[in-house]
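To whoever picks this up:

The parser on our side crashed when reading a file containing two proteins. I've narrowed it down to the boundary between the first structure block and the second sequence. Both blocks are reproduced below exactly, byte for byte. First block:
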Amino acid sequence: MNTWTPEEQTRLTETHSLVLTAGAGEHPGVEIGMALVDGRLYVRAYRGVGSRWYRAAREHGRGRIRLGSETRDVLLTTEGLRPPAGLDAAFRDKYGPVADALVAVPEARAATVRIDPV
């Protein structure tokens, strides 16, 4: 299992959003909020499992994230994923009340993706 370094975890915590691109090639990415729980990085599609980028993440299982000028290849896990306890709270802590409307609803919970470094 690949993990984020302490320095990367700090940067992910302090950064408001990342750009996620699912699959290989030069596809456009989606800017999205993220949360860390126990050193693991998670994102959610607020439109649910029908979201285009979520379907691409599920299909490809690999992609890239960009934080500022840095790009990193990543693994995208959707199948059999059980989001950890505290993920909703982590999103609320980071984004405030808007998190309840965007990522703490059943549709978004069903479209959770864990992002691991390659």
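<<boundary where parser fails>>
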Amino acid sequence: MSQTITLDIPHQLGRAGARARIESKIGRLADKIPGGGTVEHRWEGDSLHFTVTAMGQQVASRLDVAESIVHAEVALPGMLGLFAGKVREMLEKEGPRLLG
């Protein structure tokens, strides 16, 4: 039961500022994963594609950086889809901190 979460995170940094802020903090994402994990990422224009691997699961995500919002898409595979509500809550809380 996979599920994709989409979320828009408003900001006032401008496109370049938001991109720089995300780039400086993306490496810390692995520290937020209980039990540890790895994060691989790459930029394609103003879109950051990244994969979080933890506990044998891979979560593919994308952040599209615009002038006043960051559009996030997180694809939760299989049984992780059952936790979509909790993941969305965490993203709504932590997303603005990523840009702060």
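After patching the parser it read the second block fine. The longest helix spans residues 84-99. The two ends are 33 Å apart (CA to CA).
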